[in-house]
Amino acid sequence: MRRSRIARRRTNRYDNQALLVQSCILKNMTDQQPNNPLHGITLEQVVTRLEKRYGWDYLARNININCFKSNPSVKSSLKFLRRTPWAREKVEGLFIAAFADTPPPSAKTAGPWAKGLANLASRESSQSPSDGTGSTE
Fold this sequence. Notes:
Number of strands: 0
Oligomer: single chain
CATH architecture of the largest domain: Orthogonal Bundle
Distance between the termini: 106 Å
CATH topology of the largest domain: Transcription Termination Factor Rho, Rna-binding Domain, Chain A, Domain 1
Structural class: mainly alpha
Largest sheet: none
Shape: flat
Helix content: 55-70%
Number of helices: 7
Strand content: under 5%
Radius of gyration: 26 Å
C-alpha cells in the first residue's frame, strides 16, 4: 500500500521533530548538573552501596533512623528516605563522603560565617603553647 506524498512528508517532519527533541533532552541531561556528585545515581544505588560497604549496624549507629535499626531492608529504607528529606540528606552526605573524590564541606567551613570561624580557629591554634609540655607550675 502506497502512502501519499503529503503523508510521507508529515511522517518525516514528525520524525525529525522527535529526533530534535531527543537530542535536546540528552544534551540537557549531560550539561544540567556538572558539579553534582550524585547526578545519575539513584537512591536505590546509594542505599545498596552503603549497605554493602558498611552494613546495617554501622548505618544505624551513624544515621539515627528506624529504617536502618529495626528489620532493615533496601525497600523499607527507600520508602522512608523518599518521604523524609532530612534523612535523605544525611544518607546522601554519607554516600558522598564515602565514595566521592572530594569530601563534602564540613559545618565549620560552610555557610555565611565560614570566614569568621576560620579566623577563630587560626587564632586558637596560634595561642596554644609552643613548648608542648603542658605543665602549669
